[in-house]
Amino acid sequence: MAEIARACSERGELALRRREDGALELRVNGVFVMDDQETSSEELLASAALEAVRRPERVLVGGLGLGYTVRALLADSRLGQVIVAEIEPDLVAWMRSGLVPSILDDPRVGVVVGDVRAVVTDLPDASVDAILLDVDNGPDFLVYNENSAIYTSDFLATCRVKLRDGGVLTVWSSSASAALESAVTTVFGKCQVTPVPVRLQDRDETYYVYQGSS
């Protein structure tokens, strides 16, 4: 394992590593977050939103990661603007410098360095067609405990207010969560849950995408 970059913030430590198998890996506080080898669930997070929205002109993504959710969105020519909310400035800097393959030079992409809760709250009502949340590992396995508020019905209700008619919210989770399904159902009336089988470093796992439509 070769370390490419390391940074510390008030939330803890970020590490960018190159594994022996060649994969680029991101860890936060020592916890595996993602790599560039298994990206199917990030891509599904994007495709599920795109398929549900008739005209995805303006989309907000919570969490930059290694950029694969945003990259999947940008493949859709209908997309006009992607707002990315990322709380860790060093992660944004690594992508801008080329340590992480960048999607930030696309003119449709704008990055706001800040907590996704504040970024969403500051949006005008009914101003985005989709909100995609991939901020932490999900409500039951948090890297940063304060992110628990992201998965509550209170914050999801704020998200719904910011969606245009026919808009969609999609939320990524590393594990099945009855609480998250209940919160999405409470706010949107129903919740679509899509399991995503993945092969993660020689073991089988299942990630989940939760979706509610306005």
UniProtKB/TrEMBL annotation:
Residues 1-214 form the PABS domain. PROSITE patterns: PABS_2 (PS51006). The active site is at D134. InterPro entries: PABS, SAM-dependent_MTases_sf. One of its GO terms (biological process) is polyamine biosynthetic process. Keywords: Polyamine biosynthesis, Transferase. Transmembrane segments: none annotated. GO terms for molecular function: transferase activity. The keyword Calcium does not apply. It comes from the Bacteria. Belongs to the spermidine/spermine synthase family. This is Spermine/spermidine synthase.
